[in-house]
Amino acid sequence: MRPGLIVSSGSATHPGLRRALNEDSYLASAPVFVVADGMGGHEAGERASATVIAEFARFVGRASLELDEVRLAVAQAREGVEDLSTSGNGRAGTTLSGVVVATVDGMGYWLAVNIGDSRTYRLADGELEQITVDHSVVQELIESGELSPEDAATDRRRNIITRAIGASSTGDADYWLFPAEMGDRIMICSDGLTSEIPDARIREVLQTVPDPQTAADLLITEAVDAGGRDNITVVIADAVSVASRPGTLLETDENDIDMDTRPREAAAGGAL
Ligand code: MG
């Protein structure tokens, strides 16, 4: 089956300047583009994020995924991470954020998934939109009006998350399904990027650097230069071919017809 959505991607990760380990993990291989930010110390975080990524790596090579498959992968990842905690790795936990390619009636869709405070953004028509909503204490304080978004960036509680995979959390992941458009640029990152670089600068880089790998590398470099206080991971997924409009399919049909007419013309010539 022809994929409804073809993606070109770039990705990069860096331990930053303060942490001995890089507890982030990621996967950027169709149809899965996700970031996991592990926590727990003593390698527990590293193993937790790697456990989630291994669960999603089984999907690589598929044209698209169903929501139920993603839900099941999250549930199985949760069991795997909880097993880490019971086998002496401390209280292992991890975030998960990103998109998988989905297909609805033959058309390309993004299926976003999020648990924790890693983030998935979409740049479309020059606007940068945060698709996911952080599961964090400061996000709850912003929503209740007790904290302004500006103050949240420096609030001492900014690293406390309210849902995770593992870490004794039972909170569900959030899901969003939305149609892909040609030119969509999805950016997924751990909080090591967003705690160092303001959204306005992220938007500028995503808008002005066409190559996804070059853009991912530049964002990492800027986050390190800004202090690199945490592990930093960036995945960029560009929609380079989307079956989203009837016109896309009609073009293909017309090409097929053109090819079919050639032998017929030859046959007609032969009959004269
Ligand atoms: Mg982090």
Small-molecule binders here are:
magnesium ion
* Topology-level CATH name: Phosphatase 2c, domain 1
Radius of gyration: 21 Å
Alpha plus pi helix count: 8
Structural class estimated from helices and strands: alpha+beta
Global morphology: globular
CATH architecture: 4-Layer Sandwich
Give me the count of strands: 12
Features:
alpha+beta; Phosphatase 2c, domain 1; 7-stranded antiparallel sheet; 5-stranded antiparallel sheet; 8 helices; 12 strands; binds magnesium ion
In short:
The chain is an alpha+beta fold and about 270 residues long. It has helices at about 45-55, 65-85, 135-145, 150, 190-195, 200-210, 210-225, 245-270, and strands spanning about 5-15, 25-30, 30-40, 95, 95-105, 105-115, 120-125, 125-130, 165, 175-180, 185-190, 230-240. Magnesium ion binds next to helix 5.
Descriptive overview:
The protein has 272 residues and is of the alpha+beta class. The protein has a single domain, classed as PPM-type phosphatase domain (Phosphatase 2c, domain 1, 4-Layer Sandwich). The protein is 36% helix and 29% strand. It contains eight helices and twelve strands. The protein has helices at residues 44-57, 67-86, 137-143, 149-152, 191-194, 199-208, 212-225, 246-271, and strands at 5-14, 24-29, 32-39, 93-94, 96-104, 107-115, 119-124, 127-130, 165-166, 174-179, 185-189, 232-242. The longest helix is centred in the C-terminal third of the chain and has 26 residues, at 246-271. The two termini are 41 Å apart. Residues 247-272 have low confidence and may be disordered. The structure holds magnesium ion. Magnesium ion is lined by residues 37, 190-192, 230-231.
